[in-house]
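The pair is quoted verbatim underneath.

:::
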Amino acid sequence: MTGHDPHPPWPRPARAVAAVGLFDGVHRGHAFLLETLKAWAAERGAAPVAVTFDPHPEEILHGAAPPLVVSPARRVELIRALGVPRVWLFPLTRAVMALAAREFVARHVRDALGGEGLLMGFDNRLGSDRADCAALRAAGADLGIEVRACPPYLVDGEPVSSTAVRKAIVTGDLPAAEKLLGRRVSVMGRVVRGRKIGRLLGFPTANLETAHQAVVPCGIYAAEVTLEGRTLRAAVSVGSGPTARPGDIAPGTGSYVGAEHTVEVHVIGYAGDLTGKDIEARIVRKLREERRFPDYASLIEQIKKDIAEIETGRDAGGGP
C-alpha cells in the first residue's frame, strides 16, 4: 500500500476472505454470494469482508451511471444484515480504476484487508484490464491469494442481476422485482422542504430527494415506513402533482423523470417533522394513476379514499 491508499473503517483482520463488487440492490444473487463467502471464511477461520464501491464506475468513466437500486449507505446496511459486518464502501476514483486487477488485489485485498481469499461473482470482472476469474486465479497464485468463482443464482432459469432488478422497478413490475430482490421494492431518500401543499390540505408529506435512484413509475402507491421503531402505513405519490400546479402541467405518466417529477410520502398517523432525515418507503402495491382534479376539495376526497383503502387493505407486514 501507499500512503495515499484508502483504509477500511475497521482494524485489519488477521485473516480475511473478500468479495469485491458493486452489490447494487443486494438482491438474491448477492445474498447467495455472501452466504458462500461466509461459509468459505468459516472453513479457513477467516473474517468475511465485502468491498463495494461509491460512486458507480460508470459515473467516473462516462459522467453518468444507471440509477441505483439502493443508496450506497443502504447497500452497506443490507450487506451487514446478511451477516457480513465488515463492509468497506470503497471510495472509487479514476486513479483506482486505472489499476490493473493484479495491482488492485495486491493493494486493497491482500495488504489492506489481510485477504487470503477472493470470491468473484460468476460474471464479475476487475481492474482496468477487466480481468475475469481465470486471469485473477493466475495473479492470485503469485500473490498468495486463492481466487474462487461463485456460480450464478437462478430465478426462473435466469441469473439474478442488478440490471434485471432495475428494469423491473422502473417499469413497475413489482412482483418480478420482489422475486429478484427477496424483499419489497423501496423508494428512499433524504426528506427536503417542499411547497407544503399536503400540509395545507391536511395530509403532510415528506418530499424525498431521490437523485440517482431507480424509482417506480408515476402513480399513487400503498407503502409502509419504519419510524422510531414502529412500522406505519403510508401513501406514496410519484408524479408532477398537477392539481396544485398550473394547468399546462400534465399528470405524471409512465417512467419517473427526476427533473419533472417528485416523490412524496404521507405517513399515516405520524405528526413529527422528518425534514433532513433519511427514510425508506417500502412499496406494497399500486393504487391508481396520478390525475388532475378540478379543485382541492375533490383532491382531498380522493386522498381520503386512498388512505381508507391503505388502512383497510392487507398491506403491512412485508419483507425486510
Remarks:
- Residues 185-312 form a domain with the Elongation Factor Tu (Ef-tu); domain 3 fold (CATH 2.40.30.30).
- The radius of gyration is 22 Å.
- The chain has a mean pLDDT of 94.
